Amino acid sequence: MLEDIAAKYPNVEYQEDVELFEKFAEEWPARKADRSISGPFGNLPVLHWNNTHIIAQTLPIGQFIARKFDLYGKPKPTNEDPIVFQALIDGVVSCAYTDIIFNIFMVLWNQVDFDDSTDPYARLVKKIAGDLKMLNDLLAKSSTSFFYDQDEPTIADYFVFYAFTLAKDVHSALLPANEDSQALDKLEQVMRNRPALAKYFNEGRLYNRFSGSPTEEQYRAKLVAKKN
Prior knowledge:
Blueprint: H1 2-8, H2 24-33, H3 35-38, E1 46-49, E2 53-56, H4 58-68, H5 82-110, H6 122-140, H7 155-170, H8 182-192, H9 195-202, H10 216-227
């Protein structure tokens, strides 16, 4: 979202500081103890806003930015209650983050064996694919490429875009069948073609490690090897 916002509003500047997992054990304890860095809850991510406020946790950060920069869209028809409409958008955001993104982190932490139907997390894998199908079905009802007939992406589209591409990057078992992901495929294409996002990806600025699991890189390499 921040890339699109910075492109749209020339007066907006932001700096992305990444805590490298490779140095996490040696650097993070001191940063965590410093509440001027880690914020009220002592964790990541945090947003330092105008050097006056520290906003913590992924969902509140995303929702704050969306409200600040009008990324909740406009209800259609225009006489629909805007508070109800915001709740609908937040429902999509919550599903994308809580039910999909967070659960994919669980998959990475627990090194799920996708070929083993008796794996303790096999049901979670099916749930992730099922939740993506539900989001696809909801998106397919829209008259545009974005949720709820919006002409421009809302916070919901950004979160679902990340959830869907994250699932694709990890394993095909996390995805619904091809016929059940066509709306998500279209959303991904449209989002990747947005100039600011295309620039972001082309410059290789997306950090290639998703979770804090110390074994994520080895696990994902193993998945790639099995695929090949």
